[in-house]
Structure formats: structure tokens, C-alpha cells
Design goal:
Elements (H helix, E strand, L loop, with lengths): L4 E4 L3 H4 L4 E3 L5 H6 L7 E4 L7 E4 L2 E5 L4 H5 L2 H6 L1 H8 L4 H6 L2 H6 L50 H7 L3 E6 L2 E6 L22 E8 L6 E7 L10 E10 L2 E10 L6 E2 L1 H7 L6 H11 L11 H18 L13
Parallel strand pairs: 1-3, 2-3
Antiparallel strand pairs: 4-5, 5-8, 6-7, 6-8, 9-10, 10-11, 11-12
Helix pairs in contact: 5-8, 9-10, 10-11
Bound molecules: flavin-adenine dinucleotide and iron/sulfur cluster.
Length: 330
């Protein structure tokens, strides 16, 4: 860990334009301790907005609201249970108590080689190469990869936020802006060192959830090597709006498959107007996985993802059936 200055920001205005922000520290401190990131000035933003409030267009999550407070907040449990379940499928109780929502969007990949300072890694050191492509790539991406990086974005919460069409509120040196969730994270392309479209000095101030929460028919399925304290091999967030036994609107987002939560509008459009049954979810799964490419150790994820989409679609018809991921990860 290098020497750095430490400042506490008392307001958004005091924070924007500065160097590295620290919120819960659950990811950043590890990166600093392993010398994977270095900072000049660490700006503590813990005094900023942690409220969860109703707004005209839905709900606003303060960026500093913890994952635990969000998952157990009555407004979220009642109106956005998909988000609640996704958050509780992640990390552990202790980490969720520290981890903030803004920080969750910006956590770094869990690619083994990214965390090994001696391994070539284009994300950590641009131009050095990618150790994962011909290495241990069991947990890596199958969609949207590039020859420069095949890492996945590891968040559970963000998979639900993608399905819910959340909007990220951002304050920066040049003013405030909003970014649709689909545009927040990036694919690796030839700039894998850039995880998202946040600009230098910009601060996430909140996350807006539109009114439509799919509280009646939803499910979050997380498939992983251990049932607790593990990141997803594949995860699926499904929200369905069903009227008279027919799907009016479907939202399906995948985690563990790409550098960002993965959504395919063509598959959602395909489901609209159809019966919510296994055959239709299977057809949607084929559309979603079109173009998927496996590597030596993760080819199995393509079939696993298809089956997860079908299973999760069926569980969304009766959310009380959802397992695993329905219970908080210990
Ligand atoms: C052992 C372990 C297991 C985990 N398992 C899971 C899991 O299964 N699923 C899952 O989804 N997550 C998991 N996590 C990740 C955890 O959820 C994230 O580390 C956490 O959400 C990050 O939030 P934080 O407040 O601690 O961020 P920090 O570590 O403080 O910051 C992370 C990054 O975000 C930046 N940042 C923070 N807040 C803001 C802001 N408001 N504006 C701009 N930049 C900001 C920081 O500068 C830093 O770059 C796990 C973490 C650990 C350590
Ligand atoms: S997959 Fe991405 S993060 Fe992992 S080694 Fe390759 S470049 Fe680095």
C-alpha cells in the first residue's frame, strides 16, 4: 500500500473532481492492500446521502445506502423484491452491512489474474496481455468478450438493477447527469481497463428505480460453486408482467456471463404476448445466448445459462418457489 492523503467530504460539491472515493471500502481496501490500485488522496464520502426515498418517478436509493439497508427496506421488499433477493444472494451479512450501493456498481472484476500482480492483465496494465484467455477461465465471460479481456462483472445487485431499468444519478465537475443502467457498464473491446462510463472526478449520488418493480412475478437465481460467499457462475434476474395468463412484458438480465449485466431486448420482445411456459422461455434463452463463445474451461456456462433462464422464468410464476438465492447468503 502506498502513502496517501485522507480527506472527508462533507458534501457532494466538496467531493466531485477529487481523486479516489472510499465508501464501504470492501473492495477498494483489498485493491490498495494488494498494491493493485494506488491513490494520492482518498476522499471519504460516508457522510453523503444514504437515504432511500420515494420520488415522483419511483424510488431513489442514496449512493451511500448500504446493501443491507437497501435489501431490508420496506419500500424495496414490497415494491422491488427482485432487487432485495439479488442483493441478499451476494457476499455475506457482514459485507452487506458495509458495502454501499454506489460502490457495488464500481466493484472490480474477480478475475484471478487481475488480482495477481505478477500476471499479465490488460485490465490492470493495458497492453500487457490477457492471462485468462489461455488460462483458468472457468469463471470468465461467454458473451461480449474481446481478444483483450474476457472478465465478468461480478455484481448480483446490478443484474437486478439492469432488469429493473434503473437510472444512475451522477455529479461531476461539469454538472449533474443521469445514465441509463444499460449504458453505465462497458464491454471490454480494446479498452478493458475501463469498466464503466463514469468520467474522472464523477461521483454516483443515487440510483433511481422506476415505478414498475415486477413485485408479483419475479425471481433471482444465482448458480455458484459454493452456496455462500461466492460470486455467480451464472445469475438471472427475471421480472414478468402477466395479464390473463399471457406475458405483457418480460425483463431478463444475466450476470456472470459478460463484462456487464447482459440483457437482450429481442428475447424480451419475443416473450411479449406469449404464454409463460418452458418452451417459450427456452426459445428466449436461445435468443439471449446467440453468439456466446466458450473458452477451454467455461464452455459449460452456455448450456447452464440457458437452463437457468428457463428455470428462473418458471420460478417467477410463483416467486415463493425460488431457490437458491432466495435465502440470504451467509
Ligand atoms: C469476500 C467478498 C465477497 C463478495 N461477494 C459478492 C457477491 O457475491 N455479489 C456481489 O454483488 N458483490 C459481492 N462482493 C462485493 C461487494 O458487494 C462490493 O465490494 C461492495 O458493494 C462495494 O461497495 P463499497 O461501498 O464497499 O465500495 P468501496 O470498496 O468503498 O469502493 C469501490 C469502488 O467504488 C468507488 N466508489 C464507491 N462509491 C462511489 C460513489 N458514490 N461514486 C463514485 N465512486 C464510488 C470507489 O472509489 C472504488 O473504486 C463481495 C465482496 C467481498 C469482499
Ligand atoms: S480477463 Fe481481463 S481481467 Fe482477466 S486477465 Fe484477462 S485482461 Fe485481465
Amino acid at each position: 500500500m502506498n502513502n496517501f492523503d485522507y480527506e472527508v467530504a462533507g458534501s457532494v460539491e466538496e467531493a466531485v473532481g477529487k481523486s479516489t472515493f472510499i465508501a464501504g471500502g470492501t473492495n477498494l481496501l483489498d485493491l490498495l492492500k494488494y498494491n493493485l490500485e494506488s491513490v494520492e488522496t482518498l476522499v471519504d464520502i460516508n457522510s453523503l446521502d444514504s437515504a432511500i426515498t420515494q420520488i415522483e418517478t419511483g424510488i431513489l436509493l442514496g449512493a451511500l445506502a448500504t446493501n443491507a439497508d437497501t435489501a431490508y427496506h420496506p419500500l424495496i421488499e414490497q415494491n422491488y423484491p427482485l432487487l432485495s433477493k439479488a442483493i441478499l444472494a451476494g457476499a455475506s451479512g457482514q459485507i452487506r452491512n458495509m458495502a454501499t450501493n454506489g460502490g457495488n456498481l464500481l466493484q472490480r472484476t474477480r478475475c484471478y489474474y487481475f488480482y495477481d500482480a505478477h500476471a499479465p492483465c490488460n485490465k490492470r496494465v493495458p497492453g500487457s496481455g490477457c492471462s485468462a484467455i489461455n488460462g483458468n477461465n472457468r469463471i470468465m465471460a461467454i458473451l461480449g468478450t474481446s481478444e483483450h479481456c474476457i472478465a465478468v462483472f461480478p455484481s448480483d445487485m446490478c443484474v437486478a438493477l439492469a432488469a429493473l431499468d434503473a437510472v444512475v444519478n451522477i455529479a461531476g465537475p461539469n454538472g449533474n447527469r443521469k445514465l441509463n443502467f444499460a449504458d453505465f457498464h462497458r464491454l471490454p473491446g480494446d479498452t478493458p481497463h475501463l469498466d464503466n462510463n463514469l468520467l474522472a472526478g464523477e461521483l454516483i449520488t443515487g440510483i433511481e428505480l422506476p415505478k414498475k418493480g415486477f413485485a408479483k412475478n419475479y425471481s433471482y437465481l444465482k448458480l455458484r460453486d459454493r452456496n455462500s460467499y461466492a460470486f455467480a457462475l451464472i445469475s438471472v434476474a427475471t421480472g414478468l408482467d402477466i395479464e390473463n395468463g399471457i406475458i405483457k412484458e418480460a425483463r431478463i438480465a444475466l450476470g456472470g456471463v459478460a463484462h456487464k449485466p447482459w440483457r437482450v431486448k429481442a428475447a424480451e420482445d419475443y416473450l411479449a404476448g406469449k404464454q409463460p411456459d418452458e418452451a417459450n422461455f427456452a426459445a428466449a434463452a436461445e435468443i439471449i445466448l446467440q453468439g456466446a463463445i466458450g473458452f477451454e474451461h467455461n464452455e459449460f456456462k452456455i448450456e447452464l445459462a440457458k437452463r437457468a433462464i428457463i428455470r428462473n422464468g418458471m420460478m417467477a410464476l410463483d416467486p415463493s418457489t425460488q431457490l437458491p438465492g432466495a435465502q440470504p447468503s451467509a
